[in-house]
Amino acid sequence: MHQAADGGLARVRVPGGTLSATQFDVLRTAALELGDGWIELTSRANAQIRGLAPGAELELGGRLREVGLLPSVTHERMRNIIAAPLEDNQALVDALDAALCAVPELAFLPGRFLVTVGGAVSGLAGDIGLVGDALFLAGRDCGLRVTDPVDAVVTAARVFQEIRGDAWRLSEVDGGVRKITEALGIPHPSRIDPAVTPVAPGVHGSAVVAGVPLGRLDARLLAGVPVRLTPWRSLVLPVGTDTTGLFTSPDSPWHGVSACTGRPGCAKSLADVRADATRWIDTRNAPGRVHWSGCARRCGRPAGDVVEFVATGDGYEEIS
């Protein structure tokens, strides 16, 4: 729980992004009954409920625990596992999550610790990653090829915890990648380049990828539907799902548009950026990625090429 300008903010960690219909209905209902009626999607494929009254976290925690969304009292902060959302990898994610939570000392890993699973998300700067049998460390193929991926990830995490000192990320530890590879084996001469391959809105086999405008989902939608959250603030849904309120075409003007929380949720924001972005969307005349920020901190800015509108208190400054 965090205290925001609009009330309590709860981040619900969803390793691999997969929520059964029952789990998602509990999350939706909690947002409607305890929060502000919206579910925010994060860049780590987690979910947030905000606008919680004091003490509401107790009721929320109880509801989430009943459907398996709070499996660890001790390790909840470090349960960050992003998976390629169109791959059949949730069983591996679940095994990794259970194994990491079973090691007591790993409860002290930093909250920014990140594991990635799959080639499409290998470029998202994970501390530890898997692409097939290739082990990634600090966002790059370290050359190791593993036969037991779960054991390799747990071992790498334990070494990182031993050597990290005050570092938040493996990339910040001098010689960290070398020390982990020395503990695990002999590197392979060939390397796999990291990649970020966002899944485009539309039908993909038996699934439809639906974008969520500004990553903010009306909790009244998608009752009784299983979902998979993606790190691009979209949802993987069964084909045939009612996608009212979402967008399922890469030609949508909402595609590629993101925003920070803005007012009233953030006390530092100089503008209600979501409202301003919504008004602007009707005038949009060019494709590409656009991010709206409520102040000079530019929270939530996507990596790579993006046009930014940054609130100044007297309008917006455009940065490209």
Descriptors:
alpha+beta, Sulfite Reductase Hemoprotein, domain 1, 3 domains, Sulfite Reductase Hemoprotein, domain 2, 320 residues, five-stranded antiparallel sheet
Structure notes:
Strands 1-2-5-4-13 form a five-stranded antiparallel sheet, covered by helices on one side. Strands 3-14-15-12-11 form a five-stranded antiparallel sheet. Strands 6-7-8-9-10 form a five-stranded mixed sheet, covered by helices on one side. It folds into three domains: 1-70 and 205-241, Sulfite Reductase Hemoprotein, domain 2 (Alpha-Beta Complex); 87-198, no CATH class; 257-319, Sulfite Reductase Hemoprotein, domain 1 (2-Layer Sandwich), CATH 3.30.413. It starts with a strand and ends with a strand. It contains six helices and 19 strands. Strand 8 and strand 9 (134-137) form a beta hairpin. It is α+β, with helices and mostly antiparallel strands. The protein has helices spanning 21-33, 56-66, 90-101, 149-163, 176-184, 273-281, and strands at residues 2-4, 7-12, 18-19, 38-41, 47-52, 81-83, 115-117, 128-131, 134-137, 140-145, 202-204, 207-211, 216-218, 227-229, 234-238, 257-259, 290-293, 307-311, 316-319. It is 22% helix and 24% strand.
Strand order of the largest sheet: 1-2-5-4-13
Q: How widely separated are the two ends? A: 34 Å
Write down the secondary-structure element order: EEEHEEHEHEEEEHHEEEEEEHEEE
SS content category: alpha+beta
Q: Taking all residues together, what is the mean pLDDT?
A: 95
The count of β-strands is 19
Low-confidence stretches: none
For the biggest sheet, the summary is: 5 strands, antiparallel
Radius of gyration, in Å, reads 20 Å
Q: Give the overall shape.
A: globular
- Number of helical segments with 4 or more residues: 6
Strand content: 15-25%
How many domains make up the coordinates? 3
Indicate the percent of residues in helices: 10-25%
